């Protein structure tokens, strides 16, 4: 049962009686082109940590109020408090956070054997969550015949083992049983979610199977982090004459950078390029991680204070199959971007930049294979129609 979405006064809060949660149905968060903010987002000049004083968009208010209510209702595996945070000394600018409870309480990851593994309805999936865990449904307002069709029912669901404040999942068409393979419709909603937020630290990401996705049911991660990250302004070089794909430099994990200045045809072109790249990686059994953030245009010199567009960074990496939990942190979408959720107090107090770099680089493809992937993705971009 869906809640009519024509009302501007939609409530995203649950009724007091848990027995009424399922009866209430899923409210729609309806948005249009005018809600997408491409520019004029920046970190507070005096202190990035003061970002929580910036105005909230309608999307931020809906997500944060509904998420906070679920936290108060005890729907998470643990109560997330303010996380102890440090910027590791060094040139990278890693943001390390101590999150002991996530290391202990999160659901045991599924045993993944292939990047292309099919969906298994017997395993945990997002059709098995409690009604109260769904915050709302993303609903794009049609505007003219050119509006692209997105997957139906992209649900915003709490991550019951949150990395940070506001950590949610975007789950498209859960009843369809889609495996964890990136699709254009859900990527579009993820990009639009970043554009709907006025918070410069609202990020979106994707882990493939073999890239530490713990559930084989299509989903993106979204969360707030009140700190700039290295990937926002890292310099890059173009890999093709048209500038469709760039290589990020000066990072422990070189990544492929796709960029758009905001909503419109350029956004659709970016979605097509990214999904062609991830399709290639999946078809060739190459695990990958993806991170979406506001950031600077590609170029040899950039700054984390320039958030004039959207950066999508894609990493091809070694596959990690089986259930592995070792090291100060696991290497997935946020760690590759420079956000390190650390599992123990001892590791948090002793972690150095050199140790973090070593952990991350241990997950990268061998140089020869990385070169082959780079050449293949550049060739894919060359096939794009002018």
TrEMBL record:
It comes from Mus caroli. One of its GO terms (biological process) is glucose metabolic process. Its main location: cytoplasm. It is an enzyme of class 2 (transferase). GO terms for cellular component: cytoplasm. Belongs to the GDPGP1 family. Keywords: Cytoplasm, Guanine-nucleotide releasing factor, Hydrolase, Nucleotide-binding, Nucleotidyltransferase, Transferase. InterPro entries: GDPGP, GDPGP1_C, GDPGP1_N. Coiled coil: none annotated. One of its GO terms (molecular function) is nucleotide binding. This is GDP-D-glucose phosphorylase 1. It catalyses: GDP-alpha-D-glucose + phosphate = alpha-D-glucose 1-phosphate + GDP + H(+). Residues 58-223 form the GDPGP1-like N-terminal domain. It is found in: Cytoplasm. Residues 245-381 form the GDPGP1-like C-terminal domain. Its EC number is 2.7.7.78. Specific and highly efficient GDP-D-glucose phosphorylase regulating the levels of GDP-D-glucose in cells.
């Amino acid at each position: 049962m869906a809640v009519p979405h024509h009302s501007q006064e939609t409530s995203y809060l649950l009724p007091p009686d848990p027995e009424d949660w399922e009866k209430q149905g899923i409210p729609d968060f309806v948005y249009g082109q005018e809600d997408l903010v491409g520019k004029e987002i920046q970190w507070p000049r005096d202190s990035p940590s003061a970002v929580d004083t910036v105005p909230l968009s309608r999307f931020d208010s809906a997500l944060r109020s509904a998420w906070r209510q679920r936290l108060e209702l005890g729907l998470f595996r643990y109560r997330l408090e303010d996380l102890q945070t440090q910027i590791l000394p060094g040139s990278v600018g890693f943001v390390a956070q101590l999150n002991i409870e996530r290391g202990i309480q999160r659901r045991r990851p599924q045993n993944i054997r292939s990047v292309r593994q099919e969906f298994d309805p017997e395993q945990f999936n997002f059709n098995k969550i409690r009604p109260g865990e769904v915050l709302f449904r993303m609903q794009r307002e049609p505007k003219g015949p050119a509006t692209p069709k997105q997957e139906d029912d992209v649900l915003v669901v709490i991550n019951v083992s949150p990395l940070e404040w506001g950590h949610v999942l975007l789950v498209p068409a859960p009843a369809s049983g889609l495996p964890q393979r990136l699709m254009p419709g859900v990527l579009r909603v993820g990009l639009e979610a970043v554009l709907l937020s006025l918070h410069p630290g609202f990020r979106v990401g994707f882990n493939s199977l073999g890239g530490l996705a713990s559930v084989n049911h299509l989903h993106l991660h979204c969360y707030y982090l009140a700190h700039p990250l290295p990937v926002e302004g890292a310099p890059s070089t173009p890999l093709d004459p048209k500038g469709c794909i760039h290589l990020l430099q000066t990072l422990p994990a070189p990544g492929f950078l796709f960029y758009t200045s905001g909503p419109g045809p350029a956004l659709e072109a970016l979605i097509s390029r990214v999904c062609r790249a991830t399709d290639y990686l999946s078809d060739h059994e190459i695990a990958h991680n993806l991170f979406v953030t506001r950031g600077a245009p590609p170029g040899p010199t950039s700054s984390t204070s320039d958030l004039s567009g959207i950066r999508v960074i894609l990493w091809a990496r070694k596959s990690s199959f089986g259930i592995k939990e070792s090291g100060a942190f696991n290497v997935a979408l946020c760690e590759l971007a420079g956000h390190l959720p650390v599992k123990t107090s001892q590791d948090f107090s002793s972690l150095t930049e050199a140790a973090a770099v070593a952990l991350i680089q241990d997950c990268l493809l061998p140089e020869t294979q990385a070169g082959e992937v780079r050449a293949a993705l550049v060739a894919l971009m060359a096939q794009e129609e002018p």
